Recover the amino acids of this structure.
């Protein structure tokens, strides 16, 4: 089973909550974590049996999820009380791996596969709880997996490597081929997949898959 995780602080649930996507079950697992470390588990029924990237907007109480079953983005509103599907994008990608959100823009990372003619792409959508509209598409020169939006900058994992790509002024770029503003090699990294960046502390966290043949050499850097 594969998972995508999102941790956030919110008064809607408890001290903090963790949303977990699954690529084998049509549900989102929710772990509500209290200040004393105790947890309460719950589930949200969803339309996809294969899902990956996930993002929760605390202010709007809406959760956006990458639905790999139908190759769309779904928005679930009223997450804290009665989760309801309120918006679905058109199907513009396949083999989507992650999403990133900045303001009213959502980015999908499409990983190259036979189903999409081996094209790595970044697709940008304009989002609200009731509407998800394709804005533009960028073909990119790197193998994609995890992505993170930091304001107008997009940070992307270079899959099958120890590298991270930086795209400056990302949301102002015209549609079409897009090259990284910078490529950064992470020392002692084998193969990275996930990342997040905390702008307040200026710290980036990455997951190291390690060797695909090993189940015990993963790490967080």
């Amino acid at each position: 089973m594969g998972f995508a995780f999102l941790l956030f602080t919110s008064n809607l649930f408890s001290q903090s909550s963790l949303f977990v996507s699954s690529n084998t079950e049509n549900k989102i697992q929710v772990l509500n974590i209290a200040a004393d470390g105790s947890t309460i588990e719950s589930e949200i029924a969803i339309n996809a049996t294969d899902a990956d990237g996930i993002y929760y907007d605390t202010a709007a109480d809406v959760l956006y999820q990458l639905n790999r079953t139908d190759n769309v983005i779904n928005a679930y509103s009223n997450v804290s009380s009665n989760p309801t599907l309120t918006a679905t994008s058109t199907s513009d990608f396949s083999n989507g791996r992650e999403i990133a959100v900045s303001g009213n823009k959502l980015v999908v990372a499409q990983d190259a596969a036979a189903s999409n003619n081996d094209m790595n792409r970044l697709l940008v959508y304009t989002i609200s709880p009731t509407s998800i509209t394709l804005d533009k598409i960028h073909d990119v020169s790197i193998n994609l997996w995890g992505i993170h939006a930091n304001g107008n900058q997009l940070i992307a994992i270079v899959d099958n490597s120890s590298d991270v790509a930086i795209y400056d002024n990302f949301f102002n770029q015209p549609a079409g081929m897009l090259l990284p503003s910078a490529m950064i090699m992470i020392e002692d990294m084998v193969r990275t997949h996930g990342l997040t960046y905390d702008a307040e502390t200026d710290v980036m966290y990455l997951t190291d898959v390690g060797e695909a043949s090993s189940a015990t050499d993963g790490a967080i850097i």
